Model the fold of this input.
Amino acid sequence: MTLEMWLAAAIGVVVGAAGMALVVALMKRRASDEGGNTTIPHRTREVLSALQSGSIVVRRDRRAAFSNHTASALGVTRPDGALHPGVADLAEVAWAAEQVVEDEVEVSRGVLGASSIVHVRVTPLSNDLALAIANDNTEMRAAEQTRREFAVNVSHELKTPVGALSLLAEAIEGNADDTEMVEDFAKKIRREARRLTKLIQEIIEISRIQGGESVIDHEVVPLAEVVEEVVEAAQVSAEARDVTVVADVSASPTVMGDHDLLVMALRNLVDNAINYSDRGSHVTVTLARDADTDVAVLKVIDAGIGISTENQERIFERFFRADPARSRETGGTGLGLSIVKHVVLQHSGVVEVWSKPTVGSTFTVRLTIHQEEQ
Ligand code: ADP
Done:
């Protein structure tokens, strides 16, 4: 086979069925290259340039005879033909084994940038050339890492209430004759069961929202209705904690999105404002329209315990609690703000926090107003 035919066959393996017609056409063409010649025919260059993946024709001297733009964007080749050592090593393995080899190489992105993970598959074409196809796996690896961490955290979080339930059941068994104690333990069991239910619901919610595919129901949502619904629903828990929750609606913008998800996000913010406020305190939910940027601005303002500057950076992480004891006392799961962040992101909005310990916190959500409204 000529060099061009080898390249065509290798690309065929990589690009799959869609590229096969092109590959077959290429294989039918006779290239003038013979063994030992490392010149890449013009037609082959065109095909390699058009690939979405990074493509590099590797020479025996560990340099690139050809590489496309994606390969340099991925950082596996330089314009002077220098190769990432990981790719060159992989090509040597492929030549030695006389077969296709693949692996991931880490590409450093300067001093400040995080490194990226690039998957490289090398096919030996001849004694002198090999074809390397490179794809960015960074996001996939990061997502896998997040999933692994999430699974570990979930099992840890579930163990706490389940452990408490089992201890409380034992306590009832040991005090079966003492009605007062049994009642007290039963009350605690109910509280732990509620906590467990909330935790499971929120785990399901966050897995759904983060699942990748869009969960947005795409309907026109009047935000004033969302505010009204949330403020009304919050009254019971607010009264129980002697906190007043009021709405201050000065505009009636609508957004495209999912009514239920927006209610859930705002509810989480209002619940937190109530839970992290002292008795007798006020919580205000405002809805306005930013005249400069023409976006809808929702704010949940409390005069509660506040959040330190270091913790403000972490509160949107899953299972992060600034004060685990207080969060436990209020039945918190550490997932509320993470759900808020993802719901807002799904609506292409932003959520920000301003807070000062002992003074209070303001959570601001900005959402794009639905076109017809603008
Ligand atoms: P939780 O279920 O623990 O409330 P969240 O994800 O909703 O979890 O919030 C994470 C942490 O952020 C809370 O544990 C709390 O420490 C802090 N936090 C959230 N909202 C407020 C607020 N309005 N005032 C003070 N601290 C807050």
Notes: The first strand starts at residue 54 and ends at 59.
